[in-house]
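In this supplementary section we document a worked example of the pipeline. Step one takes a protein sequence of length 303 as its only input; no multiple sequence alignment statistics are reported here. Step two produces a three-dimensional model, which step three serialises into structure tokens for compact storage. The input and output of this example are shown verbatim.
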Amino acid sequence: MHRVEHVSRRMFAAILAIALSFPMACSHEHASPKARVNLDNGSDETWQFVLDGKPLQTLRPAFSAQIEITPGKHTFQVLHDGKPVDVIETEITSDKVSIINPGGLSVYELWIVDFSSNWMASQRGDSKQRQRTIRGERVVQADYGLLDAVPNSIVISEKSGLPMDVSEKNDTRTKLTKHLSSFPPAVAEAYAILEGNPHVFCHGSSQWRENLATGALKALGGAPHDQAIYDFVMKIIASPPKSPPEEAGINQTVVVGAAFEALKNYESEIPREQLDEWINSKPDTEGLHLTRAFHAARILKSR
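The serialised model returned by step three reads:
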């Protein structure tokens, strides 16, 4: 009798645990999807973003960031040193990425990306026909936001029902990038290109990102003498930017070479110990040690 009672208690406990967990599982399964929002600072000031009255994030000039919030109507307030810059009230949906562009300061390129079940890859076509410039808009939406990469393929749900996919299925998506008004870019944009997400300013290949990186370094090298620029470019030489793992890599030796060119007016400030370290550094798989050693030897010879 004792054994039966013991088993019954165990069964009751198991049934109770299942009953208590069931509503939670249902609640999780039917939870509302989050909406992605890109915050964008198109000014030359540091901005503080406030969401529905609560401090959210601080963004440096030309930088962008992504957050996830509940879909619905929201109020975004933007401050600079505690003073109001802009207030944006908008409806946020989960089916698109919403870009908050206070003051409409940032200019964007909206790219139309074609997908086909026949090609199984994105086809961008003629860029003049497949993109349009967006100016002055404080809220912009796209399938892929500023920080998103465009995938090589997507799932096209419609079934043809024909063998060997004779009936071709097509679909399109939109990708947003920030427009550069000049190139080489402004100093603030140069920092954002080199430190931020590579997809903000470029939707294309690693070659484009390589060109952006070298142009950004040229902009920093042409700016007035600044210790912060020297420190930052030295960090680039030590650890140049990389492409995301899933994408073709940029040529880091080209970027490091551009970084040394950016330090032309700072070469006298590079310590002898650092130059010796570059010359005597161990080989690496990317060949960066050769680029560093070449420029270090050049600088030493010029002294």
